[in-house]
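Q: For a teaching session next week I want to show students how multiple molecules come together into a single three-dimensional assembly. I've collected the sequence lines for a complex. Could you give me the predicted structure tokens for the whole thing so I can convert them for display?
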Amino acid sequence: MSAGLAFSIAYLMLGSFRVTQRDYLLGFPIGFSFLALSYLFLAVSAAFPSVSEVARWSDLFSTTYGFAFIAGTYFLRRRGAAGSFSRWLFSLAVVAVLVVILVEVVPPFGALPGYSAAAQVFLVVNLGLLGYIILSLNQALRRSPHEVNFLVQMGFILLAFGQYSFLLWTLDQGFWSFALANLFRLAGLVALLIEAATAVVGVNRR
Amino acid sequence: MPRPPEEQKRPRPRYRPKIFYDILCSIIKQEESAGIARITRVQNEVNLPSDRFRAHLEDMEALGLIGHGEGLTATEKGRDFVSEYEKVAQVLRRFGLD
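A: Of course. Below is the structure for the complete assembly, covering every listed component.
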């Protein structure tokens, strides 16, 4: 369900790139596609124990890439990006290097860390990226209070709560932290999809 | 060191689709108010140098967004483009990305 919601948001945001041709906007559909993939990997890891390890690691990477692309979109927007595809590639390379450093260098002697330890690092990075997105939205909201929608900010705040609950779950493996993480994630995606979809329908009704 | 005010207020460069949108809006507005959209008035409204404006008009005509007779006319495809652009601009504004 989360994957469907994220793919729908990606599809709606792809339209914005197609029409405006601002290359930094590609980050949104790419980011939400990565998030959708990560939710699929999560489902695969639960449904097929034989590929659970690979699916769980893929989930970690794709979630962080997803949030990195979305945060990158806000970063390039704030910098007034024009013709910034090379900057996109640069940003992607920086994120890739950071991920490799986090996974390979930080744990002792280049060995792959245990899943749980790595998941905690990735979730903290995700929270940092979401913090940046929420901060950017807050600034945009203050700049144009009648245009930027509070529900969008709420959506990303709920996604951040979801990541935080997942972080708690990696520590306590409790039912409630896992259930809340899924609920927050779902609520956040629903809020974002509602906003993206009502904007389209609202203009159609004019 | 703080940047001079004129540099801070310098508008961002417009992307081609935004220029197309501005031209089409100006044409539609003039068609509705005066019945005909004059090239010079549209050019003044969208604030573009003559050579770039003419180049954009040629591109838009080739894409079937406008017609060029006695004055300028927005085609059905052009009006669809305006409606599509407004939807997208609305989504982007809501997401703090415009």
